[in-house]
Amino acid sequence: MSKKLVTMIVGLLLVSTAGLGGLFAQAGTSGVSVSTSGTAQSGATVTTWAVGSPSWSPIEGAVGVINGGGIARIHLPTSPAGKWAITLFLDDPNEMVSAYSFWNPKIQIRTISTSGLTSGTTSIPTVSSGGSASASTFTGGTEVPDALTSDAFQILTLSKGFVTFVVDSSDGLPVDTSDVYDTGGENRVFEIGISTPAGTSNAGTFFTKDASDADSMSPEFSIEVRQQ
């Protein structure tokens, strides 16, 4: 079977201090950055999150909690059906280790609940309005566990720098080419983000050892989606 590859690079989107409720009150910096851009090949697409991105409030010398948020929406083709590996890479751990002793977000794959959707009629929420699995915290919708391990989430760390989920395309929400929910649709929708999984109390924790440089506190991601 030929392999299909999608690459998505997460760059910079400035988050205001006011929007994060006094971010860096002790640090004197202007904000952290989380943004996305992407390209798609071979029938799969990645759509970057417009609002509701993950956020956190670094205070030097203190432990903090990460607020969940979406990273991207992924469309996989309904046919041929099969398993796909979705890998999220942290591209700048060498910079982040200068700011954090640890930074451990919980990563999940989710898809949209069919509650309230009518096949052939209802359009799914757009990413520009905050996506569909979460709105702002990436805790709604339906958790999609790893198809091989059944893990509902994985923790991304500065030392390892990546997490991989294997999903079965049939587990995604079926939509047509206009993103209308359709049980016979051409595509299957998944979403990836930082989340508070069921049975846990937060979306991750971190410890800030140096809050002087916003760039060092800002993760840069890339996503690879490959058919198995």
Topology of this structure?
Blueprint: E1 5-9, E2 37-39, E3 45-48, E4 62-65, E5 69-77, E6 83-90, H1 93-96, E7 100-111, E8 142-143, E9 154-155, E10 162-168, E11 173-175, E12 187-194, E13 204-208, E14 221-227
Antiparallel strand pairs: 1-2, 1-14, 3-5, 4-13, 5-12, 6-10, 6-14, 7-8, 7-9, 7-12, 7-13, 11-12
Question: What does it look like?
Answer:
- This protein has 228 residues and is mainly beta.
- The protein has one domain (5-227).
- The protein is 2% helix and 35% strand.
- The protein is built from one helix and 14 strands.
- Strands 3, 4, 5, 7, 8, 9, 11, 12 and 13 form a nine-stranded antiparallel sheet that branches.
- The longest helix has 4 residues, at 93-96.
- The model is unreliable at 1-31 and 35-41 (pLDDT under 50).
Report a brief summary of the structure:
The protein is 2% helix and 35% strand. With 228 residues, it is an all-beta fold. Mean pLDDT is 79; it is low at 1-31 and 35-41.
Number of separate domains = 1
Give me the number of helical elements: 1
How far is the N terminus from the C terminus?
8 Å
Largest sheet: 9 strands, antiparallel
**Unreliable residue stretches:** 1-31, 35-41
- Helical fraction equals under 10%
Shape, per Cα inertia axes: elongated
- Which oligomerization state do the chains in this entry correspond to? single chain
SSE string, helix = H, strand = E? EEEEEEHEEEEEEEE
| Averaged pLDDT | 79
Assign the structural class, choosing from mainly alpha, mainly beta, alpha/beta, alpha+beta, or little secondary structure: mainly beta
Task: Return Rg in Å.
Answer: 17 Å
Beta-sheet strand percentage?
25-35%
* Number of beta strands: 14
